[in-house]
Design brief:
By secondary structure, the protein is mainly α. It contains 10 helices and no strands. It has helices spanning 7-26, 33-40, 44-50, 54-77, 84-96, 105-116, 119-137, 151-168, 172-187, 192-195. The longest helix is centred in the N-terminal third of the chain and has 24 residues, at 54-77. It is elongated, with a radius of gyration of 20 Å.
């Protein structure tokens, strides 16, 4: 959306950005339209001109967040200047970094499913497909063929691992450290330092 010459669209983006932080901090149930209006610096009545309900604001937040996550994850996987470990880790950071340490994460996920259906799961599945292709192209999947594990299964395994770590990690640093280990286990052998050591393969 080009908002440079559209004040109304720019205000909508401002509202959605402010609401994103508030929902992450307080959860859906404890967030009121008054909280969002105050964060933007407008009256509650003015907020209703843009979004008729809190649910409408939340849907807009999810739509914008998913589009950003998808784009950032795709960009990370396409970054050919980075090795496959960094690219995969970057994709997971795009997907889950904002969820780490969020007290009301379970409630927000449930609300997303209730109000928007399976859109988040569908977005994650699209990223997993992209990741499987990246693992194939980097030669990672070929090293697992003898074990009967496909590139899609590797990507799905990493996604499930990330899902668990995002709930248990207290900080983004902890999440990234733990995910790096998981990604390295899968990618070992396709990394430059691994290839320089003879006889070291997964």
């Amino acid at each position: 959306m080009n908002v440079a010459n559209d004040p109304e669209a720019a205000r909508q983006v401002e509202i959605v950005e402010a609401a994103t932080g508030i929902f992450l901090r307080y959860g859906f149930k404890k967030t009121a339209m008054e909280d969002i209006a105050r964060a933007v610096g407008i009256s509650r009545q003015a907020l209703y001109l843009y979004f008729p309900t809190k649910e409408a604001v939340f849907k807009a937040v999810i739509s914008r967040s998913l589009a950003a996550m998808r784009a950032e994850a795709r960009a990370a996987l396409a970054h050919q200047d980075h090795d496959i470990e960094e690219r995969v880790l970057g994709a997971f950071e795009a997907l889950h970094s904002k969820a780490v340490g969020v007290e009301h994460l379970g409630e927000l996920i449930a609300t997303t499913a209730t109000l928007t259906g399976p859109v988040f799961r569908e977005m994650e599945e699209a990223v997993v497909r992209d990741m499987a292709q990246a693992l194939d192209a980097a030669g990672v999947a070929a090293r697992w063929t003898k074990a009967g594990v496909s590139s899609m299964e590797l990507a799905q395994h990493l996604a499930a691992t990330s899902e668990g770590i995002k709930f248990s990690a207290k900080t983004l640093g902890e999440y990234l450290d733990r995910m790096r280990i998981a990604v390295r286990i899968v990618c070992w052998g396709a990394l430059p330092e691994a290839n320089s050591r003879s006889g070291r393969a997964p």
